[in-house]
Design goal:
The chain is mainly α. It has a single domain, classed as Rhopdopsin 7-helix transmembrane proteins (Up-down Bundle). It has 7 helices and 2 strands; from the N terminus they run ααααααββα.
Length: about 240
């Protein structure tokens, strides 16, 4: 293998490895939530960790994960090359990355009880509204990317185990988030079990992205130079008498 090809593949593999970032996002939420006094991960949204003295951890978690997910989208575009979903999956992944950055920049309003001794604002703030509404395009993009990958897998016959895993993830990711939303009252800003169901949804959706990253990394050795923006060396043109120009 030529040096330019090896270099191109290393760059693509580095971008594809960024697909593990969403799963690490969940790990940070779990660890941060376990260490925060007064925070109950079962009955609290993960975004609530953006408030308080240690809120910068979750804010950074949103932004860094969003940037890495956007980088992963670039790697996906180069790896898929052509066929069903080759454009849609990277775009949807990029939308998810952008939404995660937005969630970090526009911090959610605190809910009653956390952080301790902090009162929620009398009316939702602008950044709170943006953060909450941002959840819908984020999970819509996440779900659509998974289902598009399932469709691509079916068309390309990528294996029954992978297809079933992807289809199930595409169904359960929005379903579990819907259950979480149903267990929370937006009138009283409280609920029971919504934090647990949100984490289940994140575990399924973000865990799938880690599997997808590994799935693409396994096949990245077959990526031609053209997929990384390299053009094959030009061949000398031939005259009609057979001599090179």
């Amino acid at each position: 293998m030529s040096r330019p090809r090896r270099s191109a593949q290393r760059r693509i593999k580095a971008l594809l490895a960024c697909g593990f970032a969403p799963l690490m996002f969940l790990v940070v939420i779990l660890l941060d939530g376990a260490l925060q006094p007064g925070y109950d991960p079962v009955d609290r949204w993960g975004s609530e960790l953006s408030n308080g003295d240690w809120g910068w951890i979750q804010i950074a978690n949103f932004v860094v994960t969003g940037l890495l997910t956007t980088a992963f989208a670039v790697g996906v575009r180069r790896a898929l090359r052509s066929g069903p979903g080759s454009k849609a999956i990277p775009v949807l992944t990029g939308v998810l990355g952008f939404c995660l950055i937005v969630a970090g920049v526009f911090v959610t309003d605190p809910n009653p009880g956390f952080p301790p001794r902090v009162q929620p604002p009398p009316e939702p703030t602008l950044h709170g509204w943006v953060h909450n509404l941002n959840l819908f395009p984020a999970w819509a993009a996440l779900t659509a990317a998974i289902l598009m990958a399932a469709y691509r897998g079916i068309v390309r016959k990528e294996g029954m185990a992978w297809i079933l895993t992807t289809v199930i993830a595409g169904i359960l990711t929005p379903l579990t988030l819907y259950i979480a939303a149903q267990r929370f009252s937006f009138d009283t800003l409280s609920g029971s079990g919504h934090g647990l169901w949100q984490r289940i949804s994140q575990a399924i959706g973000f865990g799938w992205y880690a599997l997808y990253s590994a799935h693409l990394l396994r096949d990245s050795r077959n990526i031609p130079l053209q997929a990384a923006g390299h053009r094959p060396a030009a061949q000398p043109s031939q005259r009609t008498d057979g001599t090179a120009v």
